[in-house]
């Protein structure tokens, strides 16, 4: 690596120069349209930290004990005998010890630290990708097996599935799945979105696995069968392990695509990372900052995944 | 032991029809070593592969140890477990160690316990002289070693018959001997063997019968001496003069 840097020093310098020039160019362009950058608005959508007002649920009397300089323990004794205990900020208190209050009165405020909508969106995107990825892998395994099967029924059905899914846009599939299948079977948005993505990715995973199976030398199946294993036993013990090892890199690519494609489910009002970004923009107008942030967050997800896969590949390649 | 009656195997490649096996009949006795010779493309492999149904025959009948292979009720996997096969290209399982290669089918097909499979596996690896490589993976072995493991793997099923399809053709010349030695000792133990090979030394030493195949047909049958001294057919003479 170091030797390489020395040898190609000039090119590495050029690389850095091009990157810097691109960044500078982008900056200059935004200057031309007079865009005001407010990066400061972004962090609160990762972690929200602030005061949140608390209101009484009914009529009653308050007992207030001071805990320390900043906080007080407020016990709301409602007329119906129930009690609420709140820890409120000293400065925010609207009533004093022994005061009575009525329903809807503001009592004070508490300090909250909450994950922001971007983190929630990120988690939703992760869940979507994880669940649909797992289902896609299962679908893909069966489709891959069906595609190389000698049985015309399995082979035919699998081909039709793959052709239909690969021949139509994912966006359209999501709509059909949500409005038609989802309504008929009464799916939640999240379920509909997850399944639509899984069925989409499953077709591609199936093709990858089919190619992997077909890349295993024919002699392997013959050797296994000549030992008396049946077709399924040979597939499970001999063909699949070799095929799966081979398909790891294209499979990784497919899962990275899946993470990115999951952004399309925001059209059926699932608050994934992309939808979260859109919502933040409507309240902040920090269009550029948010989209760059969203892009960065997707990049973190996909890059982490490629790193994990690379690690697994290295572990795998030890055996040969 | 093996009764082959008038079998045919045809391949269709596009427009062309290839009669790989064309009305071949033969009978292999228990304990016989039969060597098949013949020019490339004469149907030797196809003939052999019909014997364990790696190729399905179009017509004719094969009966092994009293079991009719063409009978619909016959469980083909059961037959295959009784008929070991050794390939020219070894076909070891690359993701399994040498010992696992020999153990796997024992566990799956013969339903042997792990300890039993391991014990039998090690015994066979000793027999083919490769026990010190038990934990190695196939790609760490030489061609001769691979083929010996492949033989052990087939023997682990306790087959009644062993089929060999040019087992030494892919080997460097210096490794041919070690594989032939294993096969010879098998033959002397009384294993029924059908061997496609051009190693005429092997044929002379252990073969009971030699079959000359040509264009999918069995052209000439005789004991090894017959082929060395006075082969009948012109094609056999021409072929032998090329390989000896
Ligand atoms: N799977 C197959 N598909 C099409 N043709 C085949 C196949 N296997 C063998 N053949 C053809 O059958 C003929 C006999 O082949 P083979 O049995 O391999 O002969 P040999 O082993 O004597 O060289 C050849 O012409 C070969 O091209
Ligand atoms: Mg051949």
From TrEMBL, chain A:
Upper classification of the source organism reads:
Bacteria, Deltaproteobacteria, SAR324 cluster
ABC transmembrane type-1 domain residues are 122-309
Q: Name one GO biological process term.
A: amino acid transport
**Gene Ontology CC terms, in alphabetical order:** ATP-binding cassette (ABC) transporter complex
- Location(s), subcellular: Cell membrane
Q: Which residues cross the membrane?
A: 9-27, 128-148, 160-181, 187-206, 290-312
Q: Which protein family is named in the record?
A: Belongs to the binding-protein-dependent transport system permease family. HisMQ subfamily.
- Extract the GO molecular function terms from the UniProt entry: transmembrane transporter activity
Query: Under which name does UniProt file this protein?
Result: ABC transporter permease
Per the UniProt record, the source organism is: SAR324 cluster bacterium
This protein's membrane topology, according to the annotation, is:
Multi-pass membrane protein
Q: What is its main location?
A: membrane
NCBIfam families attached to this UniProt entry: HEQRo_perm_3TM (TIGR01726)
InterPro entries annotated for this entry?
A: AA_ABC_transptr_permease_3TM (IPR010065), ArtM/GltK/GlnP/TcyL/YhdX-like (IPR043429), MetI-like (IPR000515), MetI-like_sf (IPR035906)
Which keywords belong to this entry? Amino-acid transport, Cell membrane, Membrane, Transmembrane, Transmembrane helix, Transport
UniProtKB/TrEMBL annotation, chain B:
The yes or no answer to whether the keyword Ligase is present is no
What Pfam family is a match for this entry?
ABC_tran
What InterPro entries does the record tag this protein with? AAA+_ATPase, ABC_ATPase_HisP-typ, ABC_transporter-like_ATP-bd, ABC_transporter-like_CS, MetN_ABC_transporter-like, P-loop_NTPase
Pinpoint the ABC transporter domain residues. Answer: 2-240
Record's keyword annotation contains Transport: yes
Top-level taxon of origin? Bacteria
Extract the coiled-coil ranges from the record.
none
Recite the UniProt keywords alphabetically: ATP-binding, Nucleotide-binding, Transport
Checking Gene3D superfamilies in the record gives:
P-loop containing nucleotide triphosphate hydrolases
Matches recorded under PANTHER family? AMINO ACID IMPORT ATP-BINDING PROTEIN, PHOSPHONATES IMPORT ATP-BINDING PROTEIN PHNC
The text of the family note is: Belongs to the ABC transporter superfamily.
> Would you tell me the protein name for this molecule?
Peptide ABC transporter ATP-binding protein
């Amino acid at each position: 690596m170091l030797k390489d840097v020395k040898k190609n020093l000039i090119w590495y310098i050029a690389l850095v120069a091009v990157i810097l020039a691109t960044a500078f160019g982008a900056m200059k362009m935004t200057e031309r349209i007079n865009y005001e950058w407010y990066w400061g608005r972004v962090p609160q959508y990762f972690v929200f930290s602030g005061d949140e007002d608390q209101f009484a649920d009914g009529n009653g009397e308050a007992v207030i004990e001071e805990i320390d300089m900043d906080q007080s323990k407020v016990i709301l004794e409602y007329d119906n005998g129930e009690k609420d205990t709140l820890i409120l900020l000293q400065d925010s208190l609207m009533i004093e010890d022994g005061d009575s209050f009525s329903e809807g009165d503001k009592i004070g405020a508490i300090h909250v630290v909450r994950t922001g909508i971007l983190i929630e969106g990120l988690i939703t995107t992760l869940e979507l990708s994880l669940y649909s990825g797992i289902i896609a892998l299962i679908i893909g395994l069966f489709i891959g097996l069906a595609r190389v099967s000698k049985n015309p029924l399995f082979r035919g059905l699998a081909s039709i599935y793959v052709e239909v899914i690969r021949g139509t846009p994912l966006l359209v599939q999501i709509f059909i799945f949500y409005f038609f299948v989802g309504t008929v079977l009464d799916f939640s948005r999240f379920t509909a979105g997850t399944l639509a993505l899984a069925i989409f990715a499953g077709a591609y995973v199936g093709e990858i696995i089919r190619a992997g199976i077909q890349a295993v030398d024919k002699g392997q199946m013959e050797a296994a069968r000549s030992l008396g294993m049946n077709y399924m036993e040979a597939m499970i013990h001999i063909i699949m392990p070799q095929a799966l090892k081979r398909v790891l890199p294209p499979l990784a690519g497919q899962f990275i695509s899946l993470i990115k494609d999951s952004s399309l489910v925001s059209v059926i009002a699932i608050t994934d990372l992309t939808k979260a970004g859109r919502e933040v923009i409507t309240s902040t107008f920090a269009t550029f900052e948010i989209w760059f942030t969203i892009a960065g967050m997707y990049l973190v997800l996909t890059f982490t995944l490629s790193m994990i896969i690379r690690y697994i590949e290295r572990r795998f390649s030890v055996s040969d | 032991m093996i009764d082959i009656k008038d079998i045919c195997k045809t391949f269709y490649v596009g427009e062309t029809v290839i009669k790989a096996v064309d009305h071949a009949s033969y009978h292999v006795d228990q304990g016989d070593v039969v060597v098949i010779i013949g020019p490339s493309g004469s149907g030797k492999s196809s003939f052999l592969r019909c014997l364990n149904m790696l190729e399905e025959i179009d017509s004719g009948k094969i009966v092994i140890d009293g079991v009719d292979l063409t009978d619909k009720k016959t469980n083909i996997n059961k037959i295959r477990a009784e008929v070991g096969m050794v390939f020219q290209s070894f076909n070891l399982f690359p993701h399994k160690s040498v010992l696992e290669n020999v153990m796997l089918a024992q566990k799956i097909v013969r339903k042997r316990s792990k300890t039993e499979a391991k014990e039998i596996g090690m015994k066979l690896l000793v027999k083919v002289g490769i026990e010190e490589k038990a934990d190695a993976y196939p790609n760490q072995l030489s061609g001769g070693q691979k083929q010996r493991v492949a033989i052990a793997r087939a023997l682990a099923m306790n087959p009644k018959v062993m089929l060999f399809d040019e087992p030494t053709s892919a080997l460097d010349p210096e490794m041919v001997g070690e594989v032939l030695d294993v096969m010879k000792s098998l033959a002397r133990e009384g294993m029924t063997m059908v061997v496609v090979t051009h190693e005429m030394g092997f044929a002379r030493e252990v073969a009971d019968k030699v079959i000359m195949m040509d264009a999918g047909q069995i052209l000439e049958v005789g004991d090894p001496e017959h082929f060395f001294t006075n082969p009948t057919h012109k094609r056999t003479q021409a072929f032998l003069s090329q390989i000896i």
